[in-house]
Design goal:
Distance between the termini: 51 Å
CATH superfamily of the largest domain: Type I PLP-dependent aspartate aminotransferase-like (Major domain)
Structural class: alpha/beta
Number of strands: 13
CATH class of the largest domain: Alpha Beta
Strand content: 5-15%
Length: 397
């Protein structure tokens, strides 16, 4: 095996070299080899892709749809995205000039930030937050400004946003807003979003609205901030969570044409275009599968309620999530408040895999993230293991 030349060691992008791997993936990999482990770690939907969606992808392959796609995505997919956003949220995006189909929402974020940021630009990130935001901002040359929302029930208030903007000054280029939130499951109400929109409208900044979990909400209606300040919003979404299509890797950016022009250019530099069969499947999901997530939501809500009831009995404080499929649980005071230590102990002794809250930035320490997108059988096994662990630890104490 070749070894890197000694003269080339350290001769890499220093920003990238200074960033560690995703805390989520790194911890999941660390504990995955434990025998008998029940994993509630990754954001992987516990359903199969709907049959009609799979069939659309198969037809694409059978029809020899194997040549380069248009760089911004096939017309069929962009039209489906435009139609979905209009029907679901009343948003108007021209499929020719205001939409780009990407390799998942992650590439949509990477392309958007790279197209947006200049060295020294600041990006406000309410935390706890998805672990990739800070690295993506940093590699794009920006400066992450993390705002701990834990004392405000994990909501970025208009007051906190105003304070942050006043403190950070004119270097602020954007706000990343994700809702329903990963890891907390918190969803913003229309009133809360409007208050944030009113603040943003007074400043020359973007809102990057990561709405990947928008179709997975419980007893609340999802509202998009793009309906309030469309001229300042870069909307990110995709099919991974809504239609259990994580492996298809299809996401999209919807934004004003003046921004899409450069975002599409960056996207083309990164990946050229998504694969045709995946785009055909995604187009079918958006055009004819708008109701597909409803069945998933029914089961996710049952799973959420079951897990919360079990956690409550064991002394874990929780804020019942209104969306996504995560529970952000406060570690009881009787245990170590170091979330990595506690999550490691759970994996080793209880055979339950969760993600340490510290992986999600300020406000996350002292918590663990539990994914309830797992099978019902795995959830029952995990909660039984957790109860046995709690009893054994109590008896030792």
């Amino acid at each position: 095996m070749p070894e890197l030349s000694a003269a080339l060691k350290g001769q890499v992008n220093q920003k990238l070299d200074s960033i560690g791997p995703s805390g989520i993936r790194a911890f999941d990999q660390k504990i995955s080899g434990i025998p008998g482990l029940v994993k509630l770690t990754l954001g992987e939907p516990g359903f199969n892709t709907p049959e009609h969606v799979k069939e659309a992808g198969i037809r694409s392959i059978q029809n020899n749809d194997s040549h380069y796609s248009a760089q911004k995505g096939t017309p069929a997919l962009r039209n489906a995205i435009s139609g979905f956003l209009k029907k679901r949220h009343g948003l108007d995006y021209n499929p020719e000039t205001e939409i780009v189909a990407t390799i998942g929402a992650t590439e949509a974020l990477a392309a958007s930030l790279s197209a947006m940021l200049n060295p020294g630009d600041k990006v406000i990130i309410p935390t706890p937050a998805f672990a990739l935001y800070v690295p993506l901002v940093t590699v794009a040359g920006g400066i992450p400004v993390e705002v701990d929302t834990s004392k405000d029930h994990f909501i970025l208030t208009a007051e906190r946003l105003n304070e942050t903007l006043a403190r950070e000054g004119d270097a602020v280029k954007a706000l990343i807003l994700t809702y329903p939130n990963n890891p907390t499951g918190v969803e913003y109400s229309e009133k809360e979003l409007q208050a944030l929109a009113d603040v943003v409208a007074q400043k020359p900044i973007f809102v990057i609205a990561d709405e990947i979990y928008s179709e997975l909400t419980y007893d609340v209606t999802h509202h998009s901030i793009a309906a309030m300040i469309p001229e300042q919003t870069v909307l990110i979404n995709g099919l991974s969570k809504s239609h259990a299509m994580t492996g298809y890797r299809v996401g999209y950016i919807a934004a004003p044409a003046g921004f899409i022009k450069n975002a599409a250019k960056m996207h083309a530099f990164l990946v050229t275009a998504p694969s045709n069969p995946a785009q055909a499947a995604a187009a079918e999901a958006l055009a004819n599968g708008m109701d597909d997530p409803k069945e998933m939501c029914v089961q996710y809500k049952k799973s959420r309620d079951y897990v919360i009831a079990c956690l409550d009995k064991l002394g874990f404080e929780t804020v019942p999530p209104k969306g996504a499929f995560y529970i952000f649980a406060k570690i009881p005071a009787r245990y170590s408040q170091n979330s990595v230590e506690f999550a490691t102990e759970l994996a080793q002794k209880a055979k339950v895999g969760v993600i340490p809250g510290s992986a999600f930035g300020p406000g996350g320490e002292g918590y663990i993230r539990i994914s309830y997108a797992a099978s019902v059988e795995d959830l029952h096994a995990a909660m039984a293991n957790l109860e046995a662990f709690a009893k054994s630890e109590s008896s030792v104490a």
